[in-house]
Amino acid sequence: VLILGSLLVVSNSIRASIDRRREEIEILKLVGATTAMIRRPFVLEGAFLGALATFAAVGLSYLFYLWELQVVSENLAFTNVASQFQFLAPVTLASVAAGGILLGALGSYVCVFKISSASQPGSATR
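Above: the chain sequence. Below: its structure as tokens.
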């Protein structure tokens, strides 16, 4: 559900960006830009949005981890359970970051692919 929600949010953001740049896209098509040249900036923007959201989520999770560690160490100091807590391993953090970037790029690619294929001659418009 979260992955689907992420894809929808990113694709809606990219769709809004495409709508804002509609005239620029038409000019690029008129001067001979390929479809890949037009899609690439939007996919990179989606990847950037995915990275930004991932880093914000990891940062907030780390702050929550620090707060919870403090609460546990103050209230359960006699059990020494706080020493057992650890944040995500670096490999896990890298995997989460790569997944967020990939989801952002995938969401924007799906949106850009639908829109640019719908604007091709002989296809249905939205």
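Residues 35-75 form the longest helix (41 residues).
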